């Protein structure tokens, strides 16, 4: 492996187009292969933290995204992503070099709602730089034929960026294939799929985890769920890979007194922060695979949508009320939570992966929302002091109670 003091000159030569991306492979000793909606990507990284997080993020595997088994030969590789983790000062110096040597006007981009960035043209290809004034770690993403090179800081959180960018690629390819993203969590209970839809703070994560904890339940997704509605079949749900974000109050209500002893990929919030409250801004970030390991909750990879629930959690209450919804009311609420093509967090297709037009994506979103609106739907109000066993039994009863008597 080349000496550390050689990395800046090598990367400068790469950015200036004087050497190709393969020249960086000597630093990339960690390898993993992923499949994203039919695209096979070989991930080469300078640290095992990056490849380990890729493995964990895409567990359990689904038909949209999965990791190729390490002992399986990767065939049909169509793209490569290299990820180099460097000291923060090195990354910042490389970024300043791009700003000073890039040609043309920078093109603004939003990696997500809190991560403004801009594309700069370099001889070696377009380079995306995070905004130095945004309070986020510096990062460079170089796009060149058949591959990406991601240069991040060498702290734990930044080295997860390659996995997040892979998810972005899979997200946009899935939209091209007819999948639609909903602001929703999902779980199964008694073999039936339940889509939990609503605004942030409505209780989506809480309800999905409570349903998954029932005797024949399983957890599917948190906050973002991909939905497809193909002719002649019930709508299908697949998880968008990402962490479950929980407040301490929710964790305790689910029966777990503390997570202090849980060794998680993401560092935990300090005990004196507001994360212990039901509505704290700081939250525990735990991947579904980690939740399974710590709690034993089964994980599902895909499910039909058999019931749509619109929750509303009431602070300090023991309230519990379920009401059947008309299709037109459900359609309106579902439409408001449809994230394709306009996601309010993952704001835009900043990597330019999509081939479908926004109008085509919007029409497909309306079609999928219409299919979901034809499924049984209920609104569910429950309090933070309502026993979760009563909440889940109420949802179970919704499957068997005639609509006219609810």
Protein model, in words:
- There is one protein chain.
- The chain has ten helices and 20 strands.
- The protein is an alpha+beta fold and 406 residues long.
- Helix 2 packs parallel to helix 4.
- A hairpin with a 2-residue loop joins strand 1 and strand 2.
Q: What's the arrangement of secondary structure elements?
A:
Layout: H1 7-15, E1 30-36, E2 39-45, H2 48-57, E3 65-67, E4 79-86, H3 88-101, E5 103-110, E6 116-122, E7 125-130, E8 140-144, E9 147-153, H4 161-176, E10 180-189, E11 192-197, H5 204-212, E12 217-221, E13 224-228, E14 236-239, E15 244-246, H6 248-253, E16 284-286, H7 288-295, E17 302-304, E18 307-314, E19 320-324, H8 327-336, H9 358-373, E20 377-383, H10 388-398
Parallel strand pairs: 2-4, 4-9, 11-18, 18-20
Antiparallel strand pairs: 1-2, 1-3, 5-6, 6-7, 7-8, 8-9, 10-11, 10-12, 10-13, 13-14, 14-17, 15-16, 19-20
Helix pairs in contact: 1-3, 2-4, 8-9
Our estimate of the beta-strand percent is 25-35%
Structural class of the secondary structure composition? alpha+beta
Biggest β-sheet strands, sense, barrel: 9 strands, mixed
Distance between the first and last residues' Cα: 67 Å
Give the uncertain stretches in residue-range form.
none
Mean pLDDT: 90
Strand order of the largest sheet: 3-1-2-4-9-8-7-6-5
How many helical stretches? 10
Overall spatial form:
globular
The H/E string reads: HEEHEEHEEEEEHEEHEEEEHEHEEEHHEH
Count of strand segments:
20
Helical content stands at 25-40%
Cα-based radius of gyration, to the nearest Å: 22 Å
Which structural traits does this protein have?
single chain; 406 residues; alpha+beta; nine-stranded mixed sheet; 10 helices; 29% strand
């Amino acid at each position: 492996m080349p000496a550390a003091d050689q990395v800046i000159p090598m990367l400068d030569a790469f950015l200036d187009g004087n050497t190709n991306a393969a020249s960086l492979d000597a630093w990339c000793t960690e390898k993993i292969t992923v499949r994203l909606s039919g695209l096979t990507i070989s991930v080469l990284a300078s640290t095992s933290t990056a490849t380990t997080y890729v493995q964990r993020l895409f567990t359990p595997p689904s038909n949209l995204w999965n990791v190729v088994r390490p002992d399986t030969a990767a065939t049909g590789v169509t793209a490569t992503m290299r990820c180099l983790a460097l000291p923060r000062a090195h990354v910042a110096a490389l970024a300043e070099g791009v700003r000073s040597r890039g040609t043309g006007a920078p093109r603004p981009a939003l990696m997500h709602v809190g991560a403004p960035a801009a594309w700069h043209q370099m001889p070696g290809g377009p380079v995306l730089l995070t905004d130095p004034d945004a309070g986020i770690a510096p990062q460079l993403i170089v796009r060149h034929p058949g591959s990406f090179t991601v240069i991040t800081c060498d702290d734990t959180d930044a080295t997860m960026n390659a996995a997040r960018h892979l998810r972005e690629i899979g997200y946009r390819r899935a939209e091209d294939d007819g999948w639609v993203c909903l602001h929703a969590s999902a779980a199964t209970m008694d073999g039936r799929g339940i889509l939990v839809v609503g605004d942030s703070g409505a209780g989506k994560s809480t309800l999905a985890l409570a349903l998954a904890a029932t005797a024949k339940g399983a957890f599917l997704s948190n906050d973002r769920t991909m939905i497809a509605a193909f002719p002649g079949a019930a709508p299908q749900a697949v998880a968008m890979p990402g962490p479950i974000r929980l407040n301490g109050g929710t964790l305790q209500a689910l029966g777990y007194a503390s997570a202090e002893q849980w060794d998680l990929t993401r560092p935990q919030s300090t005990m004196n922060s507001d994360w212990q409250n039901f509505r704290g801004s700081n939250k525990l970030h735990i991947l579904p695979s980690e939740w399974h390991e710590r709690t034993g909750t089964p994980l599902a990879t895909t499910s039909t949508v058999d019931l749509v629930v619109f929750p509303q959690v009431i602070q300090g209450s023991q309230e519990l009320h379920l009401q059947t919804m008309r299709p037109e009311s459900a359609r309106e609420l579902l439409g408001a939570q449809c994230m394709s093509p306009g996601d309010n967090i993952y704001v835009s297709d900043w990597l330019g992966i999509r081939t479908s037009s926004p109008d085509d994506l919007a029409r497909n979103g309306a079609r999928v929302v219409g299919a979901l609106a034809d499924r049984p739907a209920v609104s569910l109000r429950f309090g933070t002091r309502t026993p979760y066993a009563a909440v889940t039994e109420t949802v179970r009863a919704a499957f068997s109670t005639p609509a006219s008597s609810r």
